């Protein structure tokens, strides 16, 4: 299996605090990888480094073998890396389709000259962009909500639309920050199906942060555990669930079912 992501001794310091400490992670092609750890473990900081929000204090990141350390978020999006956030960031007064269209780079790149003189070529390009976005809505089972304003979607569907916006950028690698946060168990089942479809059928790559252990253990091929910025364990879900250091990191109470 090809390696799609590799971090080498990634470190992030905020003043005297080391939020991420010499972390090495790898992700193979086709693998659903989850990042877990107690509050303050450094998960979001690592995500912010991987998506170019923070430049690491030390270490390197390789994507498909290319050193992408220090690239800006927009440069990483062009390389096919996109993310969602813990809190929903949709355009509430736009429809589901419009939310996807404005994330699509072909839509953004349309200049004034092209929009006036583009002719048939432009029309074909626009039709293609709409078709791509419609197929994303189908992937998310949101095709019947195509004209619905984002603000009128149920919460779980809004979270799916967030993933759709990341897909609409043309991304191959999706970093999902707590995609199941606030979802009920039915919505989480739907989310799991979507993530499964995106990775196993569409052959995209997913790295996710999630607090719901039942969800993580059900969907992940492999899990990486951070605690106080340090990688304390990695392995398949069954290994992680029985790892003494991981159990202790969660305050000695055992791994929670859902936080
Ligand atoms: N911009 C920042 N400036 C200073 N300290 C920060 C900054 N961002 C994060 N930290 C600190 O780094 C540590 C790791 O935080 P981070 O948000 O990455 O953890 P986390 O694992 O995502 O936690 P949670 O599960 O609660 O979201 C924490 O001690 C946090 O206070």
Describe it for me?
By secondary structure, this protein is of the alpha/beta class. The chain folds into two domains: about 1-80 and about 170-259, P-loop containing nucleotide triphosphate hydrolases (Rossmann fold), CATH 3.40.50.300; about 90-170, P-loop containing nucleotide triphosphate hydrolases (Rossmann fold), CATH 3.40.50. The chain has eleven helices and eleven strands. The protein has helices at about 45-50, 75-80, 95-100, 105-110, 110-115, 120-140, 155-170, 185-200, 215-220, 235-240, 245-250; strands at about 5-15, 15-25, 25-30, 30-35, 60-65, 65, 80-85, 175, 205-210, 220-225, 230-235. It has a six-stranded mixed β-sheet with strand order 7-8-9-4-10-11, sandwiched between helices. Helix 6 (about 120-140) crosses helix 7 (about 155-170). The longest helix is centred in the middle third of the chain and has 21 residues, at about 120-140. The relative contact order is 0.17. The mean pLDDT is about 90.
């Amino acid at each position: 299996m090809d390696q799609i992501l590799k971090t080498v001794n990634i470190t992030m310091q905020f003043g005297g605090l080391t939020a991420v400490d010499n972390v090495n992670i790898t992700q193979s092609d086709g693998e659903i990888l989850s990042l877990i750890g107690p509050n303050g473990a450094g998960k979001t900081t690592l995500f912010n480094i991987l998506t170019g929000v923070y430049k690491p204090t030390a270490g390197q990141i390789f994507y498909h073998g290319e050193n992408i350390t220090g690239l800006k978020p927009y440069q990483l999006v062009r390389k096919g890396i996109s993310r969602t956030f813990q809190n929903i960031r949709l355009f509430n007064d736009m429809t589901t389709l419009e939310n996807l269209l404005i994330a699509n780079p072909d839509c953004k790149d349309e200049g004034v000259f092209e929009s006036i003189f583009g002719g048939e070529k432009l029309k074909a390009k626009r039709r293609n962009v709409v078709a791509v976005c419609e197929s994303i809505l189908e992937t998310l089972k949101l095709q019947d909500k195509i004209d619905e304003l984002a603000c009128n979607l149920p919460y779980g569907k809004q979270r799916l639309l967030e993933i759709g916006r990341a897909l609409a950028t043309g991304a191959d690698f999706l970093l999902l920050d707590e995609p199941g946060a606030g979802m009920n168990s039915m919505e989480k089942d739907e989310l799991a199906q979507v993530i499964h479809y995106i990775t196993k059928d569409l052959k995209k790559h997913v790295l996710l942060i999630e607090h719901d252990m039942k969800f993580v253990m059900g969907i992940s091929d492999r899990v990486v555990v951070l605690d106080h910025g340090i990688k304390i364990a990695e392995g398949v879900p069954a290994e992680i669930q029985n790892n003494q250091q991981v159990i202790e990191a969660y305050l000695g109470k055992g791994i929670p079912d859902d936080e």
